[in-house]
Batch of 2 targets.
Target 1
Amino acid sequence: MVEDSVVQTKQIGKYKVEVIRSKCISAGSCEAIAPGVFALDEEGIATVISQDGNSDDEKLLAAQSCPTDAIVVTDIETGEQVWPKA
Amino acid sequence: MKPQRFIAKLADKEFFNEKFSKYVFEMEEPHRIDFESGQYVSITVDETGDRRSYSVCSNPDTHHSFELLIDHSPQGKGTTFLQNLKFGDEIDVMGPLGRFVLAPDKGEDEIVFIATGSGIAPFRSMILYLLQDLGEKRPVTLYWGLRHEENLFWQNDFQDLVDEYENFKFHPVLSRGSEEWPLCKGRVTDCLAVHDLPAKGCYYLCGNAKMIEDVNTLLLSKGVVAEDVHFEKFY
């Protein structure tokens, strides 16, 4: 008898985020809004610790909250830059 | 406090001069804001969701409203949005945000604030909170650099604090002051170079990046440890 296998799927959002280190001023709003995705490193610069630690909405809000537009949000499927708006 | 999105409405505008104004927003939903002095809010300024960030310049002990200092000179999207607001208009806000807040008291000898231009905004909040709410007794000194006499504002408010709190000192510095300007002239760094700056002080810097870099270098040369210098670059 073949046992039913349990297939686990991990929900991955449609947004990918990147931090432009040279623009980061350590305001920390990204970490406050999406702590599962962003953390400040030992230099106080925001880094991406996980792409799926928070929802897409929270990732986008974190990017929008950055006072220097240091976070770039890209739609994984289309490749379109969602934020900052071009 | 974790940042949240909220609605606020324009309650007052105070036009200081051609360069600076203060906007007062009343909380609508929710009715209360809790923040630490030095933090900022992010405001939606157009239909695409574009946002601009502004430090809150009011005392955090007021929860039903908050005040923002606006520098009009960039005439960017944020300034245009705010200038077009009518009394009662609602805005979409996210906050409070930011980590540029009062550091824990380590028993430093003095607290020194050094600002240029609109960098004064978070310091007004911090100074009001320190003196009025925390009853800070250590010397608290503010150095504020601007260009011309006509750019000055809040000088009477800060002078009132000098009169009320014997431990507070205020040094406005004008880089392009007139010949009649009786106080510090030049860049704020020039003024600091001739003042006694305690090595065991807690320093806060806010304003243009060049000022922060130069003042930081000056402070370190005077024996201030890097951990006692806190800064936020505005521009």
Target 2
Amino acid sequence: MSDITIKPDEQVPPAEVPEMELFHSHSWWTTYVFSQDAKVIAIQYAATAISIGVLALILSWIIRIQLAFPGAVSFIDSQVYYQSVTMHGMIMVVYMLTAILLGGFGNYLIPLMVGARDMVFPFVNMLSYWIYLLATLVLATSYLVPGGPTGAGWTLYPPQSILTGTPGYDYGIIMMLVSLILFIVGFTMGGLNYVVTVLQARARGMTLMRMPLTVWGIFTAAVLALLAFPGLFVACVMLLLDRLAGTSFFMPAIVEFGEHKNYNGGSPILFQHLFWFFGHPEVYIVALPAFGVVSDIISVHARKNIFGYRMMVWAIVAIGVLSLVVWGHHMYVSGMDPTFGFFFAITTLAIAVPTALKVYNWVLTLWRADIHFTTPMLFALGFLVTFLNGGITGLYLGNVIVDVPLSATLFVVAHFHMVMGIAPVLVIFGAIYHWYPKITGRMMNETLGKIHFWITFVGAYAIFFPMHYLGLLGIPRRFYEMGQTAFVPDSAHTLNIFITVMALVVGFVQFIFFYNLFHSLKNGKPSGGNPWRAASLEWQTPETPPGHGNWGETLPVVYRWPYAYSVPGANQDYLPQNMPPIKGEHII
Amino acid sequence: MSFMGVFFLFIYSVMGLYLWQQGILRSDWLKEGDVAYASSGSDFPSLSPQKVGLLVFLSTAGCVFSLLIAAYFMRQGSPDWQLPEMPSILWLNYFLLVVSSCSIQAAYYSALKNHDIQLKNWLLVTGASSLLFLMGQLVAANELQNLGVYTYGNPAASFFYLFTTLHALHLVGGLVALFRTIRKSYRQALGNLIAPSVELCAIYWHFLLFIWTLLFMLLLGKGDALGVICRRVLA
């Protein structure tokens, strides 16, 4: 650090950033398959995540069909139902959302946005993808082993998850645990890359406070992930030992079918602590990149600088720090000490402060802005309301006294689907529509995009809004069928059918998106390098799609923050981050 | 719990210090033009990306071991907990690990001074003592098995096997890096060219020694002392 100030009109010396040694591929295999280029790895990550995500989408239909029409489809027995619930949850949270947001967008955007040629450890980056793919394949293969995948619920709580009554006892649970361990190992390799690239490979002039919020979000999420995934790692290793080596880390003395199991004295609560130590930060590992991406999309499509940039950064960091000390709110009904419940309720409510601050800042960015209702912008706005909705029900559930009656009802299901299902997925769609021109050089079809948005958005509300009411009625989650239950009125069954129909509709509409995605590859309108007239660095590459090494001959030099839109006194609508200041012109 | 508290206190302090140093609180973030303090392109010009990467990895590995230690404390309270008597060979193993940690440091100093022969010798000493340590751990596990202390039945014994295996796996990973460094030292004439690799190994070895010291303390039944220290730091 130094206090030297260089006046805006001074000649800036050429970049002093040391050049990176890039791996140059010589064959088709090393260019497209075993590639060490972060952009190719990003597309591999995203393609794998979306493919396994489609499987999880189909599983959600199985769940919904059973709930609306119990017994109507013969192959959905209780075993298939529980397996579907488990796999849907685990795939969506870990293998889809985490992988696409960090592995996909992180890999593609970090080097481009901070002005680097590639990630700092390209080989490790490649390894990260292949281990992730292996983890996904191990998980998918559990459908082929005797007994099928585990049906323990995505939280995999012992003792039930490793007892014989649970579907997938023989192999499913083992494959799930092995797959998670592999995922964590692979992810750690990727996470190291994201963090170190942001720390050590930024272009000249790209200070931390000039990074786009997308990079801030992904960076903080990666740090969080590196500190939170160990919780899941330890939990999985110990559970695997309980299942295979007969240890009793988590398993208490237990009698099953009249037979004394060889377990003794283990603590299921210990598993819950370890699992949620990962589980809650996981919400923010998904949400923080989404926060960042939304900030960028809103700013670009509203032609206005993000309101309160510095506070947005602080909020991201504050959320990251707080999110590691709130995990206990998932365990209010586990019989823990009320003092702990009090502590966790306080920290949970405290996290609402920086989060609300971000929501206010997004709204204030939109205030009197030149809003363009493009498809990415619609998705970003959709995220805003959905996240707000999900966040508010989170405040209810964060209070011990409200949580206790609502725990394990559909209210919780509706809450977390709103806040970490629909909201991040809307952002992912928005981000794909937004950065697709940079990745392919072509625009996606706007009309199809808007149809996709409106049906997805309204449909998602039609699914999850009524679900809150079902939860308030006391309808429990995870139940295979309700049967004749006195407290469930007939109208609840009708509502369940409505939700299922909407779920099927929304699911099918996603195929419009896939059609658009593939059709536009060849037939989309050529986009040029910067179709949204965006100021951040990734849009200023000499080639579109960016070539190997991203920046051609010389690395870019950064002169300002990434949100210079509609700058008073400037003679153009936006000022790219790498445009040298013009002599005599007073800007910001 | 208090152990995790100390771990996070440490990590948060490092991160906070870094962010503060990077000007997250400065008010000149809207100023235009080249910024002198970012001109080197990296936040830690004195550190290579590899070194930063290793330190970040150590925080993740540190988190894994901290959680294991926290789990150990939580599980300790149950009535079936009986700490088995540790085989005395563990003391010899501990000595070997200390030797390997010292010798890798010596290797680093010889690399800096371009003393090639010494460098190679010290690297070989590190490799040999680490391998002996791993073999010693196996012997210890074997001895316990012969005494009827198995992975199941007694959670304290389960933790012994879990701790030693995870620690050993980390050491095996380190040995791969060490092997590559040794190979480099035979190919490259100048010691100070491979000094950065030796330094990375040295940091990793010291880290593993530190972790094993903590785990060994727990296994010897001195965990309460550790808990007291942590609570005092937090207080």
